[in-house]
Specification:
The chain is of the alpha/beta class and 247 residues long. The protein is 46% helix and 16% strand. The chain contains 10 helices and 10 strands. The strands form 2 sheets. Strands 1-2-3-4-5-6-7-8 form an 8-stranded parallel beta sheet, with helices on both faces. Strand 5, helix 6 and strand 6 form a beta-alpha-beta unit. The longest helix is centred in the middle third of the chain and has 21 residues. It is globular, with a radius of gyration of 17 Å. The protein binds zinc ion. The site of zinc ion (ZN) has 5 residues, from loops. Zinc ion binds next to loops.
Length: 247
């Protein structure tokens, strides 16, 4: 099994060791800013063929980041990353919700990073909170045609369009308690689902921040929801990750 979405740059270093001990095959490490892009690349070099890097600026982290510098860094390191991410739109963020200028700038970052993913033929990892439909429309127009809508908890008609367009969706340990996430994962075919933690996001049931090893919880919840053996969920979602990120 893989954790297909972890913010390793924000986790203690021994989280990687613990995830290896837990039997993970690898971790897809997300970047959110220029600074975490550099840190993610460092971790990737430290754990070759286990930590896989993505590069990009997150839709709630772009306020101080420089788009041109990000695009340059992505191009210079295209062979060291497996995807562009975490990119997208977030209409619920307080600085974007009522500010048209910030919203336009957020879209500009997203579109430019989709275009570079298309140019470099790399998949995208998309954050789409509150902006599910616009994220899909822009990805279809400007993106590489492959990627994952991470932690997908949006409307089910958009989910159908996401699946029809060839994208994956992913789920986290929040599957245990989120009705929206459960509805989406119930509907999506297992062949299009990736598992992840979005660590260090807090896990209520454990009363601590998550780590990549907690992807086992995601697999447990998903196997329960889909009424499939845990082994099958583990194998299918691992194959999905290997196919999307070309591992
Ligand atoms: Zn994330």
């Amino acid at each position: 099994m893989y954790d297909t979405h972890a913010h390793l740059a924000d986790l203690p270093e021994n989280a990687v060791r613990r995830s290896k001990a837990a039997g993970l095959k690898g971790v897809i490490a997300m970047s959110t800013t220029l600074a975490t892009c550099r840190e993610t690349l460092r971790l990737r070099d430290l754990h070759p063929s286990f930590v896989w890097a993505t590069l990009g600026v997150h839709p709630t982290e772009f306020f101080n980041d420089d788009l041109e510098a990000t695009l340059e860094l992505i191009k210079a390191n295209q062979k060291r990353c497996v995807a562009i991410g975490e990119i997208g739109l977030d209409y619920w963020h307080k600085l974007v919700r009522k500010n048209e200028t910030q919203r336009a700038r957020q879209a500009k970052f997203y579109i430019a990073q989709l275009a570079v993913a298309r140019e470099l033929d790399l998949p995208v990892s998309i954050h789409s909170r509150g902006a599910w439909r616009d994220c899909l429309v822009l990805a279809s127009e400007h993106g590489p045609g492959c990627g994952v809508f991470h932690w997908y908890s949006g409307p089910l008609d958009v989910l159908d369009a996401i699946i029809d367009s060839g994208y994956y969706v992913s789920c986290t340990p929040a599957l245990e308690g989120s009705p929206e996430l459960r509805a989406a994962m119930e509907r999506a075919p297992i062949e299009r689902i990736l598992v992840e933690t979005d660590s260090p996001v807090w896990i209520k049931s454990l009363n601590r921040p998550s780590e990549p090893m907690d992807v086992q919880l995601t697999i447990d919840h998903l196997s329960e929801l889909k009424e499939l053996p845990r082994e099958d969920v583990r194998a299918t979602t691992a194959r999905n990750a290997e196919a999307l990120f070309r591992l």
